[in-house]
Specification:
The protein is of the alpha+beta class and 357 residues long. The protein contains 10 helices and 15 strands.
């Protein structure tokens, strides 16, 4: 299984063949840029290693403040997150999403006005990945290395489109939008939400680079109420007790997600269609998924985006005593009132810049 690490430049092997294409694309200045960063111990990048410990991905992020005038047209004065250098070898996995999620983690943390990236037109798949998550063609950058496209993602909440992925990671919180609590057993929760660990302190979301830290998720269950959930509903993830202590203190809410789709397993035309829908985003192996399809014991398939790991986890006791959840009700799937959802946001110490009211 591959690994994503946040490393100083001096700890990265830039002689790895992975960098050959970058050295070719940026023949003028790339080596000099690397050497400058290596000599600065404040410079870090994300590096993806494969199962053989070979480099399979690299991303460098940089905060820029002011007018960006080395592109046409210039970007107006603001705070920007620049994706300075980005490449990964796709292998039909969620690698691109894992990097994109880190981009947005940094953007929210740094409260930037926009994110931009430059890419040569030949990198079609990379450009399409950015477009999926709300980046639009802004202009061009011309240098001695050639002409690149400039893609810009605004972080202004007033410019949201209503598209779940284009608006990621923002969470809409209108009074007409439904909210649910969804319970997940610990063994599945850890695999789905690796940066929503069971701790009371805030995790360092910028340093957490767990292998499953991607944007889209699939959850398969047998809870009949699942069919009530609709696209764009908000879901609060509730991790049930791990039996290492009283459930009042070991069961906690950990994350907020937004529903993409809910399907019955019988809605798929065949087994392969079900596998194709689930295999990249589910915790289950293809073999396990095929067994699920044939046995039909878990008929509900919930697809959602993983938007936020809660800085402060609220345990069952707090959810009952302060949020007002009914202790006698079954918590497998429970609809929340607007007041309960807003109280969760308040007590979880969420950066409310990610919430769109």
């Amino acid at each position: 299984m591959d690994k994503l690490k946040h490393l100083q430049f001096s700890d990265i092997d830039f002689n790895d063949v992975f960098f050959d294409s970058l050295k070719s694309d940026y023949a003028h200045g790339f080596i000099e840029w690397i050497n400058k960063k290596i000599n600065d111990n404040t410079q870090y990048a994300y590096v993806l290693y494969d199962e053989n410990n070979k480099i399979d991905g690299f991303m460098y992020l940089k905060i820029e403040t002011g007018v960006i005038d080395d592109i046409t047209p210039s970007l107006p004065h603001a705070n920007y997150l620049k994706i300075g250098t980005f490449k990964f070898n796709p292998r039909g996995t969620l690698r691109g999403q894992r990097f994109i999620k880190k981009v947005f983690d940094h953007a929210i943390n740094e409260k930037v006005n926009g994110i931009y990236v430059t890419a040569f037109g030949k990198h079609h798949a990379l450009i399409e990945l950015f477009r999926i998550y709300g980046f639009n063609l802004y202009g061009k950058k011309t240098s001695i290395n050639g002409e690149e496209n400039v893609l810009l993602r605004s972080m202004d909440k007033t410019s949201l489109t209503g598209n779940l992925l284009s608006d990621y990671p923002y969470i809409r919180n209108s009074v007409n939008q439904r909210k649910y609590l969804l319970s997940i057993y610990p063994e599945f929760h850890t695999r789905l939400f690796p940066d929503s660990r069971l701790i009371n302190e805030s995790p360092n979301i910028l340093q957490d680079v767990s292998h499953s830290n991607s944007i889209r998720k699939i959850y398969i269950c047998a809870i009949p109420k699942a069919i009530q959930i609709q696209p764009n509903d908000n879901i609060v993830i509730y991790r049930t007790t791990d039996n290492n202590g009283p459930a009042h203190y070991r069961s906690v809410i950990t994350s907020i997600c937004v529903v993409e789709a809910v399907r019955n397993i019988n809605s798929f035309n065949n087994e392969d269609a079900f596998i194709d829908f689930c295999k990249r985003y589910s915790v289950f192996s293809e073999k396990e998924l095929r067994q699920h399809y044939r046995h039909k014991r878990y008929p509900y398939v919930i697809s959602f985006t993983y938007n936020l790991a809660l800085p402060k986890r609220l345990n069952r006791a707090i959810l009952i005593n302060k949020i007002g959840l009914n202790s006698s009700e079954r918590w497998s799937i429970m609809q929340l009132t607007n007041e309960q959802f807003n109280h969760i946001i308040e007590l979880s110490n969420i950066d409310e810049s990610i919430i769109v009211n």
